[in-house]
Amino acid sequence: MLGKLIIFLSISSTAYAGPSNIVRPCHYTNTVCLRENLAANSNCNPTVRGSIPGEYSIGRFPFETPYFNASYIDNNLIIRNHNKCVTSEFFYNVQADTLVLSIDCPFLEFDSH
Known about the structure:
Elements: H1 2-16, E1 22-23, H2 31-42, E2 55-65, E3 70-80, E4 86-93, E5 98-104, E6 109-111
Antiparallel strand pairs: 1-4, 2-3, 3-6, 4-5
């Protein structure tokens, strides 16, 4: 009898919790769905040709690190493997009216001269 009561209370508390504020319109690996959602909700152009280059450079890149009370400037910064980044999360937080798009870049390389 006690077991049935515990199961009933668990199910009741789950039902009482209410709907989730997180909406996942598609799986984060479905790039077609991601593209359509971004185009519909943020005025992105889904017909842009091309992709992220494997390597590109930035002539001057100032970088602030307030936690360490330091700043520095990279000259001729070369960024590599940006094209190997992957989407790791995609959802809407309805309560905060926020879209979360998380991208992981485990092979990203920086080179500065």
